[in-house]
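From the thread on structure requests for the teaching lab: each student submitted one protein with a one-line request. Submission from student K.M.:

"Model Cytidylate kinase from Teichococcus vastitatis, tokens only."
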Amino acid sequence: PLAGVVIAVDGPAAAGKGTLARRLAAELGLPYLDTGLLYRATGRRVLEGGADPRDVLAAEAAARALTAADFTRPDLRGPEADMAASAVAAIPSVRAALLDWQRDFGRTHGAVLDGRDIGTVVFPEAPVKLFVTASAEQRAHRRWMELRARGVAADPDAVLSELRARDAQDSSRAVAPLKPAADALTLDTTALDAEAAFQAARALVAAKLGR
Ligand code: CDP
Ligand code: CDP
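Reply posted by the TA:
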């Protein structure tokens, strides 16, 4: 058990961050937080209210109004939810509204958190930061397989172009852009399955923590 330790897992869309972070958390006995859900749920609330996810006031109000029930909605995945999440995530006041909540989650007992800015903004002092990545083609293939498993017949080219567009938007925004922290350890999973990625991550964490 690693009580009190924060492990940051960041990276682009469908790199396998969530799968990896959840498993690391279970292995290390730490709580796990998927921070993408905060932005997905905010985007959903804005769409539901009939506003544009780029509308600053509507998005900020939606972020402030989130409750636990927002995170179990069945419509938080898919192209529309992806792009709405990325749009609200570019708004500084939305990010500010969600920051303390993320910090409180990790501060007391430690946690594994996955997202885009965990190692750069939310927990810049985290002792372990992983930047999980893979080629865009490999990531698009993983997302396409997930959609297929859910019974959604998506066009592979559309999945790839949506993923590229979202990464570009997330990387180019002014506040908390997607980028590795200076002290992040990069894990390229292009040629690794989920099990191999987990074993590699486990070795990186052990080396970093000296155990
Ligand atoms: O959180 P993120 O969007 O980065 O990825 P995810 O939700 O964990 O989804 C990644 C998908 O790729 C899952 O279906 C995994 O089974 C699969 N996968 C993986 O997670 N890691 C690999 N190294 C290879 C495949
Ligand atoms: O699973 P996937 O990698 O496709 O997306 P996600 O992690 O659920 O995040 C959805 C969107 O929320 C991202 O495209 C980002 O725009 C935003 N996000 C963010 O800005 N900061 C975070 N810490 C987590 C997500």
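TA comment: The radius of gyration is 17 Å. Residues 13-19, 114, 142, 146, 189, 192-194, 197 surround cytidine-5'-diphosphate (ligand 1) (CB under 6 Å).
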